[in-house]
Each structure stands twice: as C-alpha cells, then as structure tokens.
C-alpha cells in the first residue's frame, strides 16, 4: 500500500494542501482539481470541517486521491480513516500515530527535518517522509545533506514551496513530490475563486511535468 502511494505521488508530483472551512467547498474543489489534471488533495485537520470535507470528496469525486493532513494524534487518524482518507500526512514523527495508521490500513507520511527524526521513522520501515517545514528548516541545502546518507529514503517537501522553487525541489532525485498551499489558498477559497485555483493547479502540473 505504501509503495502504491509512492508511485501515485511520483506520478502527480504536486499535492495541493488545503484547509477547507466548509465541507460544501469539497465538491467544487474536487471538480476543479480533476479538470486541471491534478486529482489529489491533502485536506488538513486545521478546521472542524476536515472530516466532512474528506468524506464529501470521496463520495463525489472517487477518482481524487484524498489524504488527511495535520494529523496529530491517534484519534484524528480514526476520524480520517472513518471519513475515507486514503493516506495520512503528519507534521512530525509520532510513533503512536504511525501505529494507529497501520492498524487502520492507512499509509502515513510523517514529517522530519533532521537525521534523528528521519532515523526514527526509517526504523519503523517508513521511507517516504515529509520534509517539513522545508524552507524554514534550511531548504534544499539541508534536504540534500540529510538525504545523502539515506539512499532508500525519499521526501515530500512541504512548507514554503512556491511556483518559484517547485522545479528546483522536483529536480532532486530524492524528492517524490511536493506539497503546497499556494494552489487552493484561504483567500481563493473564501472568495469561491475556483477559476484561480484551477489555473494554479494547471500551472503546477505543467511545471512538474517539465521538472
């Protein structure tokens, strides 16, 4: 299952990280991302609408690969799993969260930004890791240095990824995909500006294809 997720992420290369304030936005979001050729979203548990949004996306857009982000504890893993999330992303490495994800049959991508956390995750057999917060932690310089001793580990950098640096990250052989909030921003969602979201998603897809 983890390998299937890695392969799908490597194919799509960009993961829109989205906080939906209202589950009613899930349907137009799914339609927009699908039309843009980027049928994937990480719905963060930074709003009370997260679980309902995941469920709505799964029900109305079954071809969209829906993950749950900002999962901080086992109880939230259960909420994500019950809503139909197909993978979990965490900001840090929490062995209790990893254990619950495995118990629920969910691939998990834990966050790391140092070798100690990386080795803790790797010791649990996890080799696709979120590099977070990417730019604040040291950007490509730290990522390249951290990846060098661990040839079996690949990363999903998130945090500070923008259209300006996306290609630089994706050009690294140890980067599977990048997560980013610039596609479906809070301002665009609040304004219902799905045209802008679609334009940003298409641009990200095209940039990834060239990387």
From TrEMBL:
Q: Which UniProt keywords apply?
A: Carbohydrate metabolism, Lyase
Its EC top class is: lyase
Metabolic or biological pathway, per its Swiss-Prot or TrEMBL entry: Carbohydrate acid metabolism; 2-dehydro-3-deoxy-D-gluconate degradation; D-glyceraldehyde 3-phosphate and pyruvate from 2-dehydro-3-deoxy-D-gluconate: step 2/2
User: Which PROSITE patterns does the entry mention?
Assistant: ALDOLASE_KDPG_KHG_1
Q: InterPro entries of this UniProt entry?
A: Aldlse_KDPG_KHG, Aldolase_TIM, KDPG/KHG_AS_1
Record carries keyword Lyase:
yes
One Gene Ontology term of the molecular function aspect: 2-dehydro-3-deoxy-phosphogluconate aldolase activity
Q: Give the catalytic activity.
A: 2-dehydro-3-deoxy-6-phospho-D-gluconate = D-glyceraldehyde 3-phosphate + pyruvate
The EC number(s) attached to this protein equal 4.1.2.14
Q: Supply the Gene3D superfamilies for this chain.
A: Aldolase class I (3.20.20.70)
Query: What superkingdom heads the lineage?
Result: Bacteria
Subunit structure comment from the entry: Homotrimer.
| NCBIfam families, alphabetized | eda, PRK05718.1
Q: Which family does it belong to?
A: Belongs to the KHG/KDPG aldolase family.
Q: Which PANTHER family match?
A: 2-DEHYDRO-3-DEOXY-6-PHOSPHOGALACTONATE ALDOLASE-RELATED, 2-KETO-3-DEOXY-6-PHOSPHOGLUCONATE ALDOLASE
Name of the protein: 2-dehydro-3-deoxy-phosphogluconate aldolase
Organism for this UniProt entry? Streptomyces tabacisoli
